[in-house]
Amino acid sequence: MTVTIRLSDKQAAALEAKAGAEGLTIEQWIQKLAETVSKPQRETRTGADLIAALQASPYRDVDIEPERYRAPVRDASL
Questions:
Q1: d(Cα 54, Cα 24) in Å, to the nearest integer?
Q2: What is the pLDDT of residues 30-69, one digit of tens each?
Q3: C-alpha triplet 20, 25, 31: angle, nearest 5°
Q4: How would you write 8-75 as a 3-class SS string?
Q5: CA dist list (Å): 5 to 15, 42, 74, 75
Q6: Does pTM top 0.85 for this prediction?
Q7: How far apart are CA 32 and CA 7, in angstroms?
């Protein structure tokens, strides 16, 4: 696919400078930019998603509940 973009000389110079800073031609730099834009974005997952996944697990016999115990209490004089 060929795309033509009309830019001012100032805009073209700025893009060429950015490409050159990465050691790329303007064509390579735009191709790299297009690849990053076309990649799917990673989903943000929540604690609720984790709980749902654990509840759907076929390994129901695995206990991940932390052991509970009463913390020792000391007497204090005020």
A1: 46
A2: 888 888 877 666 778 888 888 888 888 777 777 777 888 8
A3: 115
A4: CHHHHHHHHHHHHHCCCCHHHHHHHHHHHHHCCCCCCCCHHHHHHHHHCCCCCCCCCCCCCCCCCCCC
A5: 12, 30, 75, 77
A6: no
A7: 19
